[in-house]
Design a protein that fits this description.
The protein is an alpha/beta fold. It contains seven helices and 13 strands. Bound molecules: zinc ion (2 copies). This is MBL fold metallo-hydrolase.
Amino acid sequence: MMKMPLTSVKSGVMEEYANGVYGLTIQIVNVYFIFNRDSREVVLIDAGMPKSASFILDEAERQFGDFKLKAIVLTHGHFDHVGALRELLDTSSVPVFAHPKELPYLTNKSDYPPAKPQIKDGLVAKLSPLFPRHSIDISANVKPLPEDGSVPFLNGWKWLETPGHTPGHISLFRQSDRTLIAGDAVTTVEQESLFEVVIQKQELNGPPAYFTMDFMEAADSIRKLAELQPASLLTGHGVPMTGANFSQELFDLSNRLPVS
Ligand SMILES: [Zn+2]
Ligand SMILES: [Zn+2]
């Protein structure tokens, strides 16, 4: 059998997709760094795959030089978004912010439901039952995001509820240049197909289907994102899309999500 790596061609290349917003691909998932040039402070959005903490920190140092990690904000608690979290917190014990409804999955109180491998028959979907869905426990560091929609340490950014993929999934939006960090609310690659994960074909798609808990909610969340008229669409999976108004594409996508 041909051996295919579960990685993307862009793994390890850090790029600035919007002013001060840098993306880094770790195997199959993206993390984002929001860097403040004046204070040299970094807020990390999501925490990548297991065992990638030193990779994340080394790449950040290579890009920013001296920097101070101030906080981590989670779009949600799936294993590919919290994989390096424990190790990162061992290095610097910073606050981790998440939606209150996501906290049970981050404090060892609930596990996510099993994946739905029946949804698509791509190889990643077939492998997905093997992906860990067990809760981690970062009780000592995790805090609920502020109720007023502000994001700690990130002036000009707002967080918004975009449930469906998970109950407490959030997205982050900066109005000044309409930068959207969408987590797994949408993807820019057909996540169920390993081939497209490897070549990272750029195409707007719904949330990774086999882990999405509620498609009706997910479609509503995509409509909410469409209303923001984002000019950059920085997703948890796939190559970020920039330099357009993605509103219509998002509305179209919300209308063709499978309803289950
Ligand atoms: Zn996810
Ligand atoms: Zn994901």
